[in-house]
Amino acid sequence: MINKFMTVYAGHIDIPDHGQDATPANDRRYSNNELASVFDKTEAIAKSMDECGYDTLWLAEHHFQHEGYECLPNILMCAVHLAHVTKQLRIGCGFNIAPMWHPLRLAEDYATADILTKGRTVFGVGRGYHTREVETFGAPMMDQDANRELFEEQVEICFKAFNNESFSHEGKHYTIPARVPYRGYDLKELSLVPRPVNLPVECWQPVVSASRRGIEFMVKHGISGMVGGGAATMAEGPIQTYQQVANAMGKNLKLGEGLALGVSFYLAKTREQAIREMLPYYEEHVKMFAPLGFVPGITPPQIEAVARRGGWAAAGVPTLDHYLKLGSWFAGTPDDLVTHLKSFEERYPGMQHVNLSPPLTTPKDRIVEQYRMVGELVMPHFRPRPAVQAAAQ
Predict the structure, then answer these.
(1) How is 283-319 classified by DSSP, letter by letter?
(2) Residues near 273 by Cβ (< 8 Å), separated by ≥ 6?
(3) Cα dihedral 301→302→306→307 (10° resolution)
(4) pLDDT tier at 234 (50, 70, 90 boundaries)?
(5) How far apart, in Å, are the Cα atoms of 284 and each of 29, 169, 172, 291, 325?
(6) pLDDT at residue 204 tops 80
(7) Which residues have a Cβ under 8 Å from the Cβ of 11 and sit 6 or more positions away?
(8) Residue 262 pairs with which residues in a beta bridge?
(9) What pLDDT score does 389 carry?
(10) Residue 165, burial from CB neighbour count under 10 angstroms (0-12, 13-18, 19+)
């Protein structure tokens, strides 16, 4: 049953205008002070979620985004800070993009954050999707096969470093340690210093294509999956595939076990109000993600249309109502959301985690309000009340 509530906040600043008639995505550019405001916003979100009893705030690693959409370049540093201004909230790496790191630097930095936050930093890895980021850091993104090959070797190295007091690795991309003499002996093994507090390391990864190879890799390393956003996720394909592959590899998972389902949501006093207020944020989401392939069903001519001001209806761009009907987006009252999530419990009996994220570019005050509404009016329906817990003791 669902009992752990999470969110992904990718680090958008408060932009001044929203929607298809507002500034095109590629024309957005903000001052350094405006871009740096993301850190105060992140702290406000974390404090609100901590007070409401959320399980995990997932942050996303991104670079060079003068457009203001995803502005957190180092989420491990953020995790250390946020753990010091909250009491129990976990801070998740959703996700560190492995191809932009040397795997041992990533392993060291995660272990350091894990220790400094007393085990409240959650490891997460991804392959990336911004060519501007990944290719600029010298790793392949245009070549998806090369990207996956590099990613898998890097994650292998991270887990070797985490799980062994000393280790070595010989692969296509890395020879660890370097074959050099050191203080009078030939170097053959390395030790990660420090290693994480909690072993084995809890690790999460996005489930996008749900390829058998990708899921086998996740199951091999005990990696949980974040299924989110697009219409395909609601067709149950990735959720069923994860269970089928895992059980074929000797696991005994219930449908939904080991996964978190993501829903973009917005709450208001009425469904009509929620849809009206969500619409410009939905349109901003499409402007950002359609060219990157994360708006399911959109065509190349429609992608060209969303890069310009207005005219979306004439181009046939999928509407918010389309995705609301598919279930990957949600707008309504808190009671409506409870009903929506209860339907997930029935469909996915093994699922504990749900990832509820207000849309990209939701302003600071409004996004904090959304988290509080979920914490106060939705989450109590999925957890025993304190009085019930006390009576049971």
Answers:
(1) HHHHHHHGGGT-STT--HHHHHHHTSSS-HHHHTPPP
(2) none
(3) -20
(4) low
(5) 15, 44, 41, 12, 19
(6) yes
(7) 38, 42, 59, 60, 62, 70, 71, 72
(8) 228, 355
(9) 43
(10) exposed
Of 124, 270, 128, 142, nearest to 201 by C-alpha is: 124
Stated pTM of the model: 0.94
| pLDDT bucket at 384, cuts 50 / 70 / 90 | low
Structural domain spans, the chain: 4-94+202-212+223-238+259-392
Q: What is the tens place of the pLDDT at every residue in 57-88?
A: 999 999 999 999 999 999 999 999 999 999 99
Q: Distances from the Cα of 372 to the Cαs of 44, 52, 240, 334, in angstroms?
A: 12, 7, 32, 11
Separation of alpha carbons 160 and 217, rounded Å: 14
Length, in residues, of the chain = 393
Per-residue exposure over 32-50, b if at least 16 CB sit within 10 Å of its own CB, e if not: eebbebbbebbeebbbbbb
Q: Which CATH superfamily is domain 4-94+202-212+223-238+259-392 in?
A: Luciferase-like domain (3.20.20.30)
pLDDT digits (tens, 9 = 90+) for 14-56: 999 999 999 999 999 999 999 999 999 999 999 999 999 999 9
User: ∠360-241-254 over CA atoms, to 5°?
Assistant: 95
* CB 167 within 8 Å of CB 189: yes
Distance between CA 239 and CA 280 in Å, rounded?
30
Asked whether 255 and 348 are in contact (CB, 8 A), the reply is yes
